[in-house]
Amino acid sequence: MNCHMPRGTIAAALTLALALPAFAADRADYVTLRTAELLNLQCAALKYVEHSFLHDAVIATLDQTRESLDLVTGAMSREAYDAWKLGADEEASASAAEAGCTDAAQSYLLTGRAIANADIFRAMLLGFHFGSLPADDRNHVALPADQAQAAERYDVFLQQVYGESYPGFAEAQRQRAVASLPASALPAPEPEPEPGIGKLPSFGAILSIDDADRILLAQSQAARVLRQVEFEVMAESNGWFVRPRQAGDGATMPSLERADGAAAGILVPVWFGPSAYRTQSGEEFRVALAQLPDGTIRAMTYGEAAGSLTAGATVRLYLPAAAPPDGMSGLSLFEDPGFREAGTVFAGVPSGGPCLGGPCYDFPPDATPALWNLGRDGYAELFIAPGAGAEPNPVEPGTARAGRLPAAALIRIRS
After folding, report:
1. H or E segment at 111?
2. Are 365 and 296 in contact (CB under 8 A)?
3. Which one-letter DSSP state was computed for residue 322?
4. Omega cis (within 30) before 274
5. CA dist., res. 24 & res. 61, Å (int)
6. Residue 271 phi, psi (nearest 5)
7. CB–CB of 70/76 below 8 Å?
8. Within a 10 A sphere around the Cβ of 387, how many other Cβ atoms?
9. Which residues neighbour 171 within 8 Å (Cβ) at sequence distance 6 or greater?
10. pLDDT, tens digit only, all 415 positions of the chain
């Protein structure tokens, strides 16, 4: 279907999206957004980052319905609520099936795009805000140049989509971004003159626990959207589309599809990442792990610092020797000093296949079933170092280390 949105239509969708209540929603709101989500799973008309935030909006809208609130307060039984939700979900499924990937889907997808991009743009603004604060400010969060450039390119996409509606869209999200932050996270006002007789001085906003929670939430939202936007921009720049792929358990993951049509319909699911990876020598880049159609696991790197990974880089997967003993979780085993002892090591070799702008590394075919055998509670370790023959630092209990891979994420692809 044609996913280029007429400017007048997107303006109408934006108006509808902004009109949806912030703290109350009804069944129709939920059904509309759930229909949009189901249609995009069929039609792939939206970017993956849009789909991801549309899914969040579906959940948030459901939580804001009177029925969900009644369930929390006990005014509605679990049985009655489940029946109500089942009916709403069936209505959305029927609407998606009826519309299909035709012009009849446009109104749903436009509404979903408008709502998703409102949250995406607001979070990008927050990321630039925290990055622009002085380095010694307690709320400063460094904004990598790669992510800033990707966000700017995504902004160009939004300007093209919204056209004449863009200034109003951008200002509305700027106001939402400001409103989401406590005064203590905003630039300090100009100092007031000395107070007169009988007047107390103003000390400005005090950082309360609630303030700290709001700031941490805003920083988390900004980090997530910047990470996803950068991934999508890098994928598109290297000849990929990023599609949503739904597993049997309902979870959705990004999947890569070649944009040149050479492998139409063949999706490469990304089961880990995109995530930042910092080497022991301090280089930080992004990495995503994908499973190729033949089952091979490929580690795909990108970001400026990925250039430090030459052909002689060390890339390994460490798997524990056995399942954790009784009383120990998979996470506890991962943090145990003996995690690598007598375990299995798989070496990654440079790949000549399509990547994300940085070097790629493929692991031996038997690495995939070995990861499956760890079970849903198991973890492996990804180790990357620029130099040949590098060794990871010893595992120290209570110390976080890069490259923790949940086997459950790979197992989900099989469901």
Report:
1. helix 106-132
2. yes
3. S
4. yes
5. 8
6. -95, -15
7. yes
8. 13
9. none
10. 333 333 444 444 444 444 444 457 899 999 999 999 999 999 999 999 999 999 999 999 999 999 999 999 999 999 999 999 999 999 999 999 999 999 999 999 999 999 999 999 999 999 999 999 999 988 899 999 999 999 999 999 999 999 999 999 999 999 999 999 887 666 655 555 554 444 444 334 445 678 888 999 999 999 999 999 999 999 999 999 999 988 777 778 999 999 987 776 688 999 999 999 999 988 899 999 999 999 999 999 999 999 889 778 999 999 998 777 778 898 989 988 889 988 999 999 999 888 999 999 999 999 999 999 999 999 999 999 998 889 999 988 777 788 999 999 999 988 6
Contact yes or no for 50/120 (Cβ under 8 A):
yes
SS3 of residue 205 by DSSP: coil
* CB neighbourhood size of 153 (10 A): 15
Which amino acid appears at position 118 of this protein?
A: A
First to last CA, the chain: 28
Q: What is 236-254 written as a DSSP string?
A: HHTTEEEEEEE-TTS-EEE
Rg over alpha carbons for the chain, rounded to the nearest Å, is 24
Query: Tell me, what DSSP letter sits at residue 25?
Result: B
CB count, 10 Å around CB of 192? 10
